[in-house]
Amino acid sequence: MAGAVTTVTAVSNEAKPKHLTEARWVRGVLIGIALLFVGVVILLPLVTVLLEAFRKGWDTYWAAIKHPDAISALRLTLTTALIAVPLNTIFGVAAAWAITKFTFRGKNLLITLIDLPYAVSPVISGLVYILLFGAQGIFGRWFIDHDIKIVFAMPGIILATMFVTFPFIARELIPLMETQGNQDEEAAVSLGARGWRTFFRVTLPNIKWGLLYGIILCNARAMGEFGAVSVVSGHIRGQTNTLPLHIEILYNEYQYTAAFAVASLLMLLAIVTLIIKSLIESKLERSKHGD
Amino acid sequence: MMNHAKQRRYSFQLLLVLALIVSVLSACGSNGNSGSNASPSQSAKPSESASSGASASPSASPSETPKKDPVELLNVSYDPTRELYVAFNESFAKYWKETTGQTVTINQSHGGSGSQGRQVLDGLEADVVTLALAYDIDALADGGLLKEDWQNQFESNSSPYTSTIVFLVRKGNPKNIKDWDDLIRDDVEVITPNPKTSGGARWAYLAAWGYAAKQNGGDETKTKEFIKQLFANVPVLDSGARGSTTTFVERKIGDVLLSWENEAYLAKKEYGDDFEIVTPSISILAEPPVAIVDKVVDKRGTREVAEAYLKYLYTPEGQEIAAQNFYRPRLQEVADKYKDQFPELNLITIDEEFGGWREAQKKHFSDGGTFDEIYTKG
Amino acid sequence: MAKSRGKSVLPGFRLTLGFTVLYLSLIVLIPLAGLVVKTAGLTLPQFWETVTSPRVVASYRISLLTSFFAALVNAVFGLLVAWVLVRYRFPGKKLVDGLIDIPFALPTAVAGIALTSIYAPNGWIGQLFDPLGIRIAYSPIGITIALIFIGVPFVVRTVQPVLQELESDMEEASVLLGAYRWRTFRKVILPELVPPLLTGFALAFARGIGEYGSVVFISGNMPMKTEIAPLLIVTKLEQYEYSQATAIALVLLILSFGLLLVINSLQRWSNRRLRSS
């Protein structure tokens, strides 16, 4: 049962032979610059958020987190991500396969169309669904007559999230699969493996990192999206508020500290996904040694 | 053997994909059917609804027999009224329970006045709207959601409470800012949100305009010049009132913040005594209006309770809550009680001075209006 | 390394392409068509007047310039960060790796508020520059910083997997041939990294043009100076001018679509050249 085609991947990156890495001082300088950049651009705002979150002590922090509105916002955010991310993952893999494994006319156009949601201002990505499904929208009347709520309810929030996070996984996979070429899959097929098997046995191991990064990014963005969701949510407390919207409400209520506390909760969620990523990483590492 | 496994895997994957799609569709569908409210299991209701327990009725079955079934209202409002309506909703729910025996849950939605109005126009099912400007409710009337003469439906222009624009300055008033004249001095920096995106900033703009017009005997060129000088002193134009308050209070930019009276008090309460409120000689009578959205209440059968809700704003209890939240009450007895909190000042009104909101909007804030002229001409 | 031309032996073309196009249409194209339909409510002169008024043009300029510089900075430093993360070992590496995704997870509004408090004249970094007469917050520099923050993950996360998969055979060969490290990097590694780098740049750039939530807090929103195009869209909506709002949005969309198309073509071209060499 052991696959007829084992893939050639992953020389352990960290144990490079001496002649393939830079002089010590070069490494030091490069690491230094990279750390400085990450420190100033990302860490500093992060620390600011945490400092603000705990400015009034642990009690205020905890009270903000366990407030019923915060809990319901958390639930809505997680549900949204749970639906939007898998769907976009399936799409991303399918799109990357079609684009990188075959040549066809209009490929550039297709790739660019997939990128389109990046280029659309979040304000607009919410608005387009209002223009379609809102009371004055193109299909709005029909949905209202049938008493189906799309915008200002959960379906609208999910749609807007899907729109915003639409390209992430495809975009992550396309350059990666482009670099890898087709030879592994072609070898597998010529050895008689069928489509799905080729995919799961050959392609998937090859693209696992890209896929993982894509899912993590997609998930992070799905949970953190503010602009688009804000337009379609209706802002009903305890009902259609996602975490980012709840944060905005707190901020507007002069609950500065609470707002940052809930924001830190979102960062925590991002960190949880990263821990999951590390777990997968070490598991993959182990299974590789097991081979 | 390999072939077999392959096929099994194939069909399994297909099944998985199908199952996923079906589950998503059904999730969307079931949610869609439950109307404007998320199903009770999905949302932790605020404590007010505790008495209704798990039986918070989905709006799909509108209360034909309102005496028994609990009912839900959605009040779509603007940003600074949050505290006001949290307190008011609680009081009203108690009152309604006592007089009719019915449990009412009021859901709240807040945001910029304009975008809130737009959401209702686009299908957010608000039973009542309580916005910052009549203009935003006029837009709903234009969209056929309520009657053209909605403003006559309740007393006092359908505005149960009023407010005005005041100055918030730093402790000790170091720049000695007393009146609108001081705002155009070279050494003064003024913080105000963008009138294009903030309802409060529009009131402030009109107050400044009204002052300058009076000062210059109605000479429009001079008035425009005054406004232009004022905005030349504005270093940051935030998109909303709260953003401006942050810029002024947290970032310590600017010498004076043009603010809603209630916002100024709130900021003072929140940030202690680092600030002082200065009341100018002339300001504007801001009348945040309320209205019932006819189309929605007729559809959901909630007219009775919605009307009672807005009428309750005019009762002594409602007025008291408004005053506690720094809105000027209409009722004389309550106003007398709180008169130390609200200093007398000369208030111009939008109807007398500007011919109503539609006129004011057209002349000053729409594209090519007087506000645009400040930045695009010379 | 011949790339399949015409008929590929690999299966699944119809299935995957069909699904891709269907999903794309449902989630992206049909909704965006709504944008076009709405804009069609304007007559052509009205449309032209809306999208070429001085304030709107100024806002396009600001949005494009700041996004461009932010994406450029991200391309350079993002590559460096990805390189360091993949190739070197140092304490706290996992942590740094994790930090990269934070800009996505943090709601843009929170990012905007946090950045403003750092770069405002009384903030940690702002106060260092204020005496020098340099204003960071409430100036185009502030907008650029917000956009750098927003765009970091795009570059790092597109370059990283490619770098990870890059086989060292080629490097090995190049070293055996006596090439110096820097030359190896330029001639062997960099060409492989050009496609993901261009992708990352394009994405960060496109995202920057549309960004609203974080920028409004730090930009100061002064008309003609620091007013970004998405803010004008919101302004129009606030006045219930749907068609004018969608008109500005449409121009923005076409601009970034064109840019993406050019960059994507460039990327595929460099890719093809790489494969054929």
UniProtKB/TrEMBL annotation, chain A:
Protein name: Sulfate transport system permease protein CysW
One GO CC term, this protein: plasma membrane
Pfam families xrefs: BPD_transp_1
Segments crossing the lipid bilayer: 29-51, 72-99, 119-139, 151-170, 254-276
InterPro entries attached to this UniProt entry: CysW_permease, MetI-like, MetI-like_sf, Sulph_transpt2
UniProt entry keywords in alphabetical sequence: Cell inner membrane, Cell membrane, Membrane, Sulfate transport, Transmembrane, Transmembrane helix, Transport
Signal peptide residue numbers: none
GO molecular function: ABC-type sulfate transporter activity
Primary location class: membrane
Domain (ABC transmembrane type-1) ranges: 74-277
SUPFAM superfamilies assigned: MetI-like (SSF161098)
Biological source species: Cohnella fermenti
Locations listed in the record: Cell inner membrane
Coiled coil: none
Function: Part of the ABC transporter complex CysAWTP (TC 3.A.1.6.1) involved in sulfate/thiosulfate import. Probably responsible for the translocation of the substrate across the membrane.
Description of how the protein assembles with itself and partners: The complex is composed of two ATP-binding proteins (CysA), two transmembrane proteins (CysT and CysW) and a solute-binding protein (CysP).
Keyword presence, Chaperone: no
Topological category with respect to the lipid bilayer: Multi-pass membrane protein
UniProtKB/TrEMBL annotation, chain C:
Annotated function: Part of the ABC transporter complex CysAWTP (TC 3.A.1.6.1) involved in sulfate/thiosulfate import. Probably responsible for the translocation of the substrate across the membrane.
Record PANTHER family: SULFATE TRANSPORT SYSTEM PERMEASE PROTEIN (PTHR30406), SULFATE TRANSPORT SYSTEM PERMEASE PROTEIN CYST (PTHR30406:SF8)
Official protein name in the record: Sulfate transport system permease protein CysT
The organism's place on the tree of life at top rank: Bacteria
Membrane topology category: Multi-pass membrane protein
InterPro entries: CysT_permease, MetI-like, MetI-like_sf, Sulph_transpt2
Protein family according to the UniProt entry: Belongs to the binding-protein-dependent transport system permease family. CysTW subfamily.
Subcellular location, principal: membrane
Transmembrane intervals: 21-42, 62-86, 98-120, 132-156, 188-209, 245-266
Quaternary structure annotation from Swiss-Prot or TrEMBL: The complex is composed of two ATP-binding proteins (CysA), two transmembrane proteins (CysT and CysW) and a solute-binding protein (CysP).
Boundaries of every ABC transmembrane type-1 domain copy: 60-263
Record-level GO cellular component terms: plasma membrane
Subcellular location: Membrane
One Pfam family, short name: BPD_transp_1
Keywords assigned by UniProt, alphabetized: Membrane, Sulfate transport, Transmembrane, Transmembrane helix, Transport
PROSITE patterns per the UniProt record, alphabetical: ABC_TM1
GO molecular function annotations of the record: ABC-type sulfate transporter activity
